[in-house]
Amino acid sequence: MALRNNRLTNEEYDEHFSDIHPPFETHNAALVEANRCLFCYDAPCTKSCPTSINVPKFIKQITTENLKGAAYTIFSANIMGGGCSKVCPVEKLCEGACVYNLMEEAPIPIAKLQRYATERAIHEKWPLFTRQASNGKKVAVIGAGPAGLSCAHALSREGVEVTIYEKEGKGGGLMTYGIAAYKVTPQFCQEEVDYITSLGGIHVLYNMQLGKDVLLETLQQEYDAVYLAFGVGMARQLAISGEQLNGVVDAIRFIYEIRTKGYPEVPVGESVAVIGLGMTAIDAATQAMRLGAKEVTLVYRRTEAEMPCTAAELNIAKLDGCNIIWLAAPKEIVGENGHVKTLVCEVMRLDERKLPVGTGELISLNVDMVIKATGQLPYTMAAPKIDNEHGRVLINEHAATNLPGVFAGGDCVNGGKEVVDAVQAGKEGAKAILKYLFREVE
């Protein structure tokens, strides 16, 4: 067993990484589903959306052939509504709240309808928003991910000049670099970033990292306000013997390389163990299978009832042929000639508080690759004067940090949630910054 790349043909890669949730093939197919909507009063689907998209309204607009109106309704609430339609865990949000679930019928395919409206708007570059005249205010945004882009767009619409400092070579953040390629393509991510910035008044400076290429103190002097949206960093360490062996990789780095290098260039083992069962773990496991691994096993220290991923995500892994071992925690990684050979796990049990407790019983997996997906750590604070809790930026109810004129939101504050949560944080940050800039009193 050994890690190697280029395991499959180009045709196999294309097949394995094709769109897992294909769009409607025809306009009539979209209309059929849209016309099923009951257009509920005080709609539970809207209430369950972190960005409060008016779902019945945009679906009604689709039924009346007003696709531009539908796209505007979506983007007004969530400027990344296109990407969110592909990656949101809708089964626990809008579609999970659909009243059809109570009738034991299939819920309205809200995400698919949202994609139907937004994809066309993005591809055809519909100019749905008009930017107000420049008001002379300047804001720096750190990070061109969902929170940063959302904040920048909301500010620019009000006439604020925004400069985004992004440490990577492309924008989109997690959407571009941290999500399975079969959910959203890099090409679409670029189109979405271009669409958002096409409003005007948003300038993105790439390969600019806070604390290295630009200092917070400098930004505070040059701009009227600063919004921190730099996300979170790499996966947590397992803190076990053998973690430094060749073949032990970080899930975020593994997915990052798939997104940046291309499928044939990323090495994968024949027998792979993935530690964790969150969304990132599922993405890593399924993509390892799709890169040509013969066997992939997800190892999780709790039971299915406690898993952080959704049932729909778990089903993707099962359909791809991934195995799952419940109630097991990594104990040691054994190597041979510097390479991973065996993953030793301890069998766990849950105590009365549902916390995993070791039983002393050990099991061994013969693997040549271990992917760590046990949650992400905050970045080391590039601006140590900012109050933080174990690396997470602390903010008040107005998204403000302890430094005057410095605001924050998204994963760098909450430690890592859904893309849609980051978009909402960006909206809230923009609202707070506008009040600060113009000294509005509540």
TrEMBL record:
Signal peptide: none annotated. Pfam families: Fer4_20, Pyr_redox_2. GO terms for molecular function: iron-sulfur cluster binding; oxidoreductase activity. It comes from the Bacteria. Residues 28-61 form the 4Fe-4S ferredoxin-type domain. This is Glutamate synthase (NADPH/NADH) small chain.
